[in-house]
Amino acid sequence: MQAVVDDVAQVQPIWAQLTLADRARYLERTAQVLIDEGDQIRDLIAAEQGKPRNEAFAMELLPTIDALQWIAREGQQLLADEKIKMHQLFFKLKKAAYTYEPLGVVGVIAPWNYPWSIPFGEVALALMAGNGVVLKPASLTPLTGERIRQAFERAGVPDGLIRVIHGPGTGSALVRSDVAKIFFTGSARTGREVGEECARQLKGSVLELGGKDPMLVLADADLDHAIQGAVWGSFANAGQSCAGIERCYVMREVADRFIDGVVQATAKLRIGDPLGWDTEVGPMVDVAQYRLVGELVEDALAAGATKLCGGPIPAPEPLQSETFYAPTVLTGVTHAMRIMREEILGPVLPIIVVDSEDQAIALANDSDFGLGASVWTCDRDRGERIAAELDAGMVWINDHVFSHGACQMPWGGVKNSGVGRTHSKFGLYECVNVKLRLWEPSRVKNPWWFPYDETLGKALKQTATVLYGRPSIRAAGLREGARPLAQLGQRLARDAFKR
Predict the structure, then answer these.
(1) Is the pLDDT of residue 431 over 70?
(2) Is 198 noted as a catalytic residue in this protein?
(3) Which of 150, 285, 312, 484 is most buried, judging by how many CB atoms fall within 10 Å of its CB?
(4) Which of 308-312, 472-476, 484-488 has the highest mean pLDDT?
(5) Whole-angstrom Cα distance, residue 372 to residue 380?
(6) Which residue in 48, 60, 198, 242 is the catalytic one?
């Protein structure tokens, strides 16, 4: 593994020497490659991962085309040298700036549920910042990972700047190598191990570790809108979204209408071949995930939950897959059940009826995860007040999860949902070393340099009083400090004249 990292490190300095405008042009060319080859990429994602064609384009391909344009445009400004204003009196002659330097080689470990859009965006951010990348796709979606590399190379990005690795143990080996930083998306358990190893090496990591996103439906919500949002937010990508809706808390006043509407809309979803244009729910990614979802549902039913629709079904003809799970709605669930504590990553929506907003907030926050959350209400002020009380990295009001498709918005969570951010300016800053650069014209020595004496001490004290003291003492400070300040000024002037 270290040999792969070393190979990328040989190419990366050449890339880093390009101007920001030049790097941006390569990203823009990559966006055109995605447009030109979009049909093939879309169908590869659908066939390998299982999400329907329309979702493969809308949730994977289209966001990366937009992200490339945003990173190329905004990255030139966000990563340019940034001047720092000097308001301190003694620093007025100095000039300072932030500079954003590439880290070197960055490692990206990708998930299977969004095998294109998640790693692609991270690779693009790293490249814009001047880095090389080693990408480890999920073992369930290796061809999608290879296609990411091909897309950049077809746009002219130097061969060897992006390398893709496969196989058991390669992710761990990548973390142990001397890559400068790791971007990891996956389970909380594995993410904690990644973070610990990076900490031992004193290098950074950005960890997106899944979620248990709550949906809060208030009594004044537009119910038709909330019902459609619940169904899409829960069952898109067969529920295999880290920020999908996995818990719903609905106010008692509207609970019956909301639940009936969700069940009716869920029952209409068309399940089938992900390559079919009309398919809305495809198979789950593999047998292991399918069995986990079934286990969590059966555990809830055994503990008293009620299943209103859904469950395992045979594969629609002529498919042979054993991993079709019809979108499922549960009521009668409690927080004592595993299904309300563990990440499902499957097409299941548990619903709890609540009696107050405070109860909904308390239950929403009663989780080890804190990726996203949504509040559904027609009162914007109320929605924003509740949003401020939710333990989450992102809160949407009257929508859910859409911001992953807008690269200008940060993505990440709190608690066991991880650390750091991808996307936005914060994602770019995760890919650089922020260096401070200062310039001193060498005309006058700093007044706090040697020699030390009482005059210097008095001048410093009265300077602080005049500049920062309360208004009532500033005039006295100026009177008392006039003499030592004048003496200090004369000393500095003599020294400058001698030079």
Answers:
(1) yes
(2) no
(3) 285
(4) 308-312
(5) 18
(6) 242
